[in-house]
Write a structure and sequence with these properties.
The protein is built from 23 helices and 29 strands. The chain is α/β, with parallel strands linked by helices. Bound molecules: zinc ion (2 copies) and fe (iii) ion.
Length: 763
């Protein structure tokens, strides 16, 4: 008795060797029929004698999928048999809705690496070697279905040999869309910064020599350009800093293998796994006390950020040649990373001495992802190359497609269809005009690739955010989402929790529902609504944005809030660096309420303490003062400033000012900064823990979500997490998306799902 089954498979099933896998399986089991890609996923028709063969086929189909594939939906129906005994791969058809997911970009695999360094292989030292299990994906597509004509490989017709591999179901390059070789595929070229071509017998070796001489080379990679210099060469590193306009923010490093990373950093088992993961993120690691990395790479930091090579080109340059290279994003300051050749010559000419280009276009800009292993889990800091566009699944489906615009710093956007959220790559800070155009293009591109046309737009409540203004100008229904509510919802959503939670949201700044600036919040809420249960007692933010750049202003603000003008008589080292006039102007601003909005920001409290301890008076990159304060912590010291000793707390303002007063008093009594920093971190943790206990007692909720940019502070995060567990709370933490504003769009999206369901005409 013949049986025929029509099977629909959705998920990450295109561009990951899924069809060849099905083909080989069917041939092996003597199953007839076909497999084809279409925009709704993969369609399989399988026919055989008897139910048993078909059952085995389905079971092995689900169990044995290729490493990069991910099945999210699997459905089948019986259809009349047609007597088909052969199995074939049919050409792709493009019909219906796109529910197929394109794979993120994956580093070159072990099989391809062996060939890359095999002198007998026809792809020996070929920088674009790849197969069905590895290589670029998202960054080379501009449409679906994922087939060569809709990728930047379109302009490279396959040679006879590559074509044979591509069409041979037994070959590991069967239907590998970026398949190429030196005869038919992309190639590299070396240029002076003015664009003139440099001839050399071996371009890779030429680049190696240039880097050894201390030159800065812009290298076109997978998701954009890197700027590379020898990581041991302090002079070259400082030249790069000067030209890139990046004073102190740490540079990322690349090492050929884990053994090399170990020469500079401590690497535990989980960190090793993270480094070796095919997504090839930058992993933040604790540096060894003495290491050979130039001090200019990460000044003042205890950590170094390392990644292993992603593209074959990286391997060719670094393997057996360097222990570490600086590989920082190819841009000026915080502008979006350059991706095009002409663009690079134009934008990077003033930074790089040489440019190593290639002619496989990068269609989606994608920065390197950054993560760190904390409390036994990988935690994303920047989710981009290797992770985008892998979906995140919501607990409940959205009934209309949603676009969430994110915030203005570390922007990412999200598109939602049904239960699937697609978080975009890192777009960056929207205060810079090229980032704003990347934001618009990013939204358009993502919508095109995923075939999602949003019907409702979510945005931050801040009226001055460019993302808010953009959202309000689209002519679609909108939902304004409070910043910290979005943070809470994002940590709930990625943990699949929908029930009401307590949220400890420790953040830089976000616009509050009362028009003041929030950022040190205990919220109680779900996706539908929230209440503000507790918050850091507000202090003035003298000078607004200037107070963010100059933490000493926050120290004055907190001193004034804690002691009034009396502090002017205090003997504090940091005060000696300020003129009497500077301080008086600030005091007058605050007293007269001029450009001094109130804030409950936790980030600003860190800034104030960092400045007070004379650790950092002004910053050159976001959160620098807080990071330096964390670095200063004497980790062996146990003990917290106790500022909530009385037993009655039923919500409301939290005594951040008293905490600061305790810090100032210790400072004046000559306590060491490391000890004060430790007591401050622990005291802050205890204060928020106390608020969480009250919230639990009053509301009967035991789950606490931790979110907000301040949780990038390893010491504080670990402390609060440990204490929450000790006190019997269930803690929700971020793993998949960053706790900073890079994860905001996910929260906005999931809140909009509920807002729409309960309010059919949001406006
Ligand atoms: Zn491969
Ligand atoms: Zn070829
Ligand atoms: Fe935030």
């Amino acid at each position: 008795m013949r049986e025929r089954l029509r099977i629909h498979v959705n998920g990450i099933v295109q561009g990951v060797g899924f069809r060849p896998f099905v083909y080989r399986l069917a041939r092996e089991l003597g199953v007839g029929g076909f497999v084809s890609n279409h925009s709704g996923g993969v369609l399989i028709e399988a026919e055989a004698d008897g139910q048993e063969s078909i059952r085995i086929f389905c079971a092995r189909l689900k169990a044995g999928i290729p490493p990069l594939a991910q099945i999210t939906e699997f459905s089948s129906e019986e259809i009349p048999p047609i007597g088909e005994t052969a199995f074939s791969i049919r050409p792709s058809s493009h019909d219906g809705l796109a529910h197929t997911l394109i794979s993120p970009d994956i580093c070159v695999c072990g099989d391809c690496l062996l060939e890359l360094f095999d002198p007998k292989d026809r792809r020996f030292r070929y920088p674009f070697i790849n197969c069905t299990n590895c290589g670029p994906r998202y960054t080379i597509v501009h449409g679906i279905p994922y087939d060569r004509p809709l990728t930047s490989m379109k302009k490279f017709p396959l040679c006879r040999e590559c074509g044979k591999e591509y069409n041979d179901p037994a070959d590991r390059r069967f239907h590998a869309q970026p398949n190429a070789c030196p005869a038919c595929g992309p190639s590299i070229s070396l240029h002076l910064s003015n664009g003139d071509k440099v001839e050399a017998e071996d371009l890779v070796e030429a680049v190696v020599s240039l880097l050894r001489e201390g030159k800065i080379v812009a290298i076109r990679g997978v998701g954009g350009f890197h700027l590379a210099v020898d990581a041991m060469n302090q002079e070259a590193v400082m030249a790069l800093r000067g030209r890139k306009g990046r004073a102190e923010k740490p540079f990322a490093l690349m090492a050929p293998d884990v053994e090399s990373v170990r020469k500079f950093c401590h690497v535990d088992l989980q960190e090793e796994e993270a480094l070796l993961h095919p997504t090839r993120p930058i992993v933040l690691l604790r540096a060894r006390g003495k290491n050979a990395i130039a001090p200019g790479v990460a000044p003042g930091s205890l950590d170094l950020g390392f990644m292993l090579p992603c593209a074959p080109l990286h391997y060719l340059i670094i393997k057996d040649r360097f222990d570490a290279l600086v590989m920082t994003s190819g841009n000026f300051s915080e502008e979006p990373i350059a991706i095009g050749n002409e663009e690079a010559v134009e934008r990077l000419a003033a930074i790089a001495d040489y440019l190593l280009l290639h002619d496989r276009e990068i269609l989606q800009r994608c920065d390197d992802s950054i993560l760190r292993v904390v409390a036994g889990e990988r935690r994303m800091i920047r989710r981009s190359r290797g992770y985008v566009p892998a979906p995140i699944f919501l607990p409940s489906p959205a009934s209309r497609p949603i676009l969430a615009c994110g915030g203005d710093l570390k922007n990412t956007v999200a598109l939602v269809r049904d239960r699937t959220v697609f978080l975009s790559q890192h777009i960056g800070d929207l205060d810079n005009p090229s980032a704003l155009s990347f934001f618009e293009h990013g939204i358009a591109n993502l919508g095109k690739i995923l075939e999602i046309t949003p019907e409702v737009i979510a945005h931050d409540l801040h009226p001055e955010y460019l993302s808010t203004k953009w959202a309000l100008g689209r002519g679609l229904p909108t939902v304004g989402v409070q910043h910290h509510h979005a943070h809470l919802a994002s940590v709930m959503a990625e943990n699949g929790v929908e029930e009401k939670c307590i949220g400890i949201i420790l953040d830089g700044t976000g616009y509050g529902t009362d028009g003041t600036i929030w950022g040190g919040e205990v919220l109680i809420g779900d996706f539908k609504s929230f209440e503000r249960f507790a918050w850091l007692a507000p202090v003035p933010l003298p000078g607004g944005a200037a107070a963010v750049r100059q933490p000493w202003r926050m120290a004055i603000s907190y001193l004034y809030s804690a002691f009034g003008r009396e502090f002017l008589n205090f003997d504090l080292p940091f005060l000696r660096q300020r003129t009497r006039e500077e301080v008086t102007v600030l005091l007058e601003m605050m007293e007269r309420g001029l450009n001094s909005p109130d804030t409950s920001s936790c980030g600003r409290l860190f800034d104030a303490v960092s400045a007070l301890l004379d650790i950092r008076q002004a910053i050159s990159y976001e959160a620098q003062a807080a990071m330096d304060l964390e670095t200063a912590v004497d980790v062996s010291f146990r003990g917290a400033y106790a500022v909530m000793t009385d037993n009655a707390f039923d919500g409301g303002p939290l005594p951040g000012i008293s905490l600061f007063r305790a810090v100032a008093e210790d400072m004046m009594s000559g306590a060491p900064a490391g000890k004060i920093a430790a007591k401050f971190h622990q005291g802050l943790g205890e204060m928020f823990l106390r608020a969480a206990r009250s919230a639990r007692d009053m509301h009967g909720i035991n789950t606490v979500g931790l979110s907000g940019g301040v949780f990038q502070n390893l010491y504080l995060f670990s402390y609060i997490l440990k204490r929450l567990r000790e006190e019997g709370f269930a803690a929700l933490t971020h793993r998949l998306v960053p706790s900073n504003d890079g994860g905001l769009a996910l929260g906005q999206a999931v809140i909009t799902t509920s807002a729409r369901l309960h309010n059919p005409a949001p406006q």
